[in-house]
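User: Fold this; tokens only.

Assistant: Input:
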Amino acid sequence: MKQSSTDEMRSEYDFSEAVQGKHHRAYKEGTNLVHLDPDIARVFRDSASVNRALRLLMQLAHDQVTSEEQQARQL
């Protein structure tokens, strides 16, 4: 993209109702943005669906480890 030779703001940008520092607190606490590949994004359309899937995966992994630990104790 070629930049304009002047420092003027483009007319299509309207910051007249902008609030300075609106998201400052959230960014200060930390953000965790993740880029999803297109095929994954088609299935998981929002953060709630991604979070549900990841929590399920975490529970399955925990259950698997717990099951393996119990089997090891029986040997």
